[in-house]
Amino acid sequence: MTDNHFYEILCGVVGERNVLRDEPMKKHTTFRVGGPARYFCTPESAGQLSRTLKACREAGEPYYILGNGSNMLVSDEGYEGTIIRIFHNMDDIRIEGRRMEIGAGALLVKAAHAAAKAGLTGLEFASGIPGTLGGALVMNAGAYGGEMKDVVREALVMDQSGELLRLSAEELEMGYRTSVVARRGYVALGASLELQRGDPAAIEARMQELREARTSKQPLEYASAGSTFKRPDGYFAGKLIEDADLRGFRIGDAQVSEKHCGFVINRGEATAAQVRELIRQVQERVYAQTGVRLEPEVRFLGFEKKEGDR
User: Fold this and answer.
1) Residue of 38, 51, 85, 177 marked catalytic
2) Which is nearest to 122 in space by CA: 189, 206, 246?
3) I want to staple 74 with a disulfide (CB 3.0 to 4.6 A). Which of 34, 98, 224, 299 is the partner?
4) Neighbours of 310 (CB within 10 A)
């Protein structure tokens, strides 16, 4: 199948205005780096998404589901496949009593503020997480003592054949930065959350407290993908990196944050190669000093696996 033929198929599924060619991924990731995706597709409904996935499978076209691009690094060469972005679409938020129905494309920040406005507590931890509900389900996003598994009661997902499945909290098997959604390659479409009644003033005060904590402790003034490494059992990644004398360690414009060593930041003009090499060297130096192997929380797209990758 020629590129033009597949492009026409995508346009027939989601409309020509929703398909871009050679779209720079640095425009769609919080790291602000990354080369072009061959196709960048934005379906507007679950039906369009299902048909897009079917088209990719039948054409043998690699694809990647993208939310807000807040936890990924795309190579400078880009992605030889189709990026399917759900963010900005399928982002409805509905509240009935203590239940919230949230579309996969909704930002967690928006959902947390909607909950606070409705006097519902339990989602405050998510008020500073830059990702979407879909990404949060995949990775069981969490911060400041809270995780998605604490509030999710069920989720609607699509399997690789396009079939819709409704999974209970138990069936989601949410653990530290993982879930059955990630392990089985499902696409998250939405979730039902159950929260508790609370005092709106107290909820807002807690969210303000968390905002101040993030501002004071995290390098929010720079582009990054948030915490770069998963928390090793019994350790804190940032402390291990600091103890390895890597605070401020820099390759080009990629740098270990001086404010929080658990963050790799883009000081302005970093390349994906510089970020990837910085991550690799941090892993090697921490392992050499401590015997602890840091596992990236960031997902890599468009990179060939190299010796030393974990």
Assistant:
1) 177
2) 206
3) 34
4) 10
Residue found under tokens 């090793």: 232
239-285: per-residue pLDDT in tens?
Answer: 999 999 999 999 999 999 999 999 999 999 999 999 999 999 999 99
- Give the whole-angstrom CA distance, residue 90 versus residue 68: 13
Our answer to whether residue 147 is catalytic in this structure is: no
Q: Which of 77, 173, 194, 297 is catalytic?
A: 297
- β-pair type (72-74, 299-301): parallel
Candidate list 50, 70, 227, 257, residue with the active-site label: 227
- Given a cut of 50, is residue 308 above it in pLDDT? no
DSSP one-letter code for 259: S
What is the mean pLDDT of the segment spanning 8-27?
Answer: 97
String of DSSP letters for 148-209: GGGTEEEEEEE-TTS-EEEEEHHHHT-BTTB-HHHHTT-EEEEEEEE-EE--HHHHHHHHHH
Task: Tell me if residue 192 is catalytic.
Answer: no
Return the higher-pLDDT residue of 160 and 209.
209
* The pairing of beta strand 299-301 with beta strand 263-266: unpaired
Contact call for residues 292 and 232 (beta carbons, < 8 A) = yes
What's the confidence (pLDDT) of residue 152? 97
Q: Which of these ranges, 3-7, 58-62, 302-306, has the smallest mean pLDDT?
A: 302-306
Three-state secondary structure string covering 62-119: CEEEECCCCCEEECCCCEEEEEEECCCCCCCEEEECCEEEEECCCEHHHHHHHHHHCC
User: Residue 307's pLDDT is what?
Assistant: 39
Model pLDDT, residue 88: 80
CB atoms within 10 A of CB 98: 16
Give the DSSP H or E segment for 21. strand 19-24
168 is catalytic: no
